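Input/output pair, single chain:
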Amino acid sequence: MPATGDMPVTVEDIKRARDRFDDESVVRRTPIETSRTLDAKTQANVILKMEHLQRTGSFKTRGAYNKLSQLADSNDGQIDRAVAASAGNHAQGVALAATKTGLDATIVMPKNAPQSKIDATKGYGARIELHGSGFQSAMNHAHSLVDENAVFVHAYDDPDIVAGQGTVGLEILEQVPAVDVVIVPIGGGGLIGGVATAIKELDPHVRVIGVQAEGAATVPQSLEKGQPHTADAVQTIADGIATGGISDLTFELIEQHVDEIITVSDTEIADSILYLLERTKQMVEGAGASAIAALLSDELDTERKTVVPVISGGNLSMTMLQRVLTHGLTFRKQLIRLRVRIIDEPGKMSHLSGIIAANDANIQNVSHERAIGDLSVGEAYLDFQIETSGDQHTNHIIEAIEQDGYEVIRQD
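Output:
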């Protein structure tokens, strides 16, 4: 491994980046919050770094402003446009930073980018081009748009970007001097590369743990191979860390400074989004919730440690929130399906709905099925999707329907 002094980003670079953040309208010093419920669940002292409360809803503003503010200071007028590729958070950071430094911005986003992130990026002043079905395709197209009057702002493969993101690490050490473990989500590696550099150079005893979504986990293979590994396809609800690869720059920083990499499933991420919503009243996107998923996983022992998960982003679309809620409630057995066999005659749906309502359950939807092979002539199925408080409540409803003479099949 290279010596620290030979690294492409140092703590001095990160300190200089923070000195440029003299305008709170661009980059904020984000707060920290405690969580008694997380403390009790993990037997640790958990302190959340609330980076989702950053301008634009994620840490990405830090790196973008660090790069573009330097360009604005040295620019002779030749560069008048910033170009970037992003699934959403980097797009917003570049758009805001470009507006604040007097540049136009063109952002290429995948065609499947959340509409909320597209609209927000436009709101910060950027022109949007939708291209391809993933980050790498958008990246390739963005490079083709760069001319002599434009600068390309990479999401993570740039020392200035990494140094800007690393200011999160400086804040953690100042806000939580007794920190033992920091948990950081990994997409392209810019955030963890900067945070780990700041922390390990200033307090090498602090453990830095990286977390990736299973469907986009490229760092474990990269470390095994000794070079960056790129995935042909990624699939995760955590679109903010679905880059499909890291760079040579971020690989070097991760290899040098990061102690451990953990992967988490989409189910764990979805459950963590709901956990944060219910227990801390914070709406967090999948990338940010992945740090909590790692904290709650069996892979990480943090008992009696002071742990800081970085909640990296809060740009959760309403469509994704609905998917997460449905998945989470189903996983918790609070959203269930019941199939009831009936004689197909008027009033049966109303009667069964009354039984369910009398047992304090809410019907989300109901469908009437007649064309099923095991039904006799004159029979039908009523399929109910019901919200309950859990298994005990569900069993009580099933018993009430069966006591009224109906056959019930629970469809989990």
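The first helix runs from residue 11 to 19. The chain has a mean pLDDT of 92.
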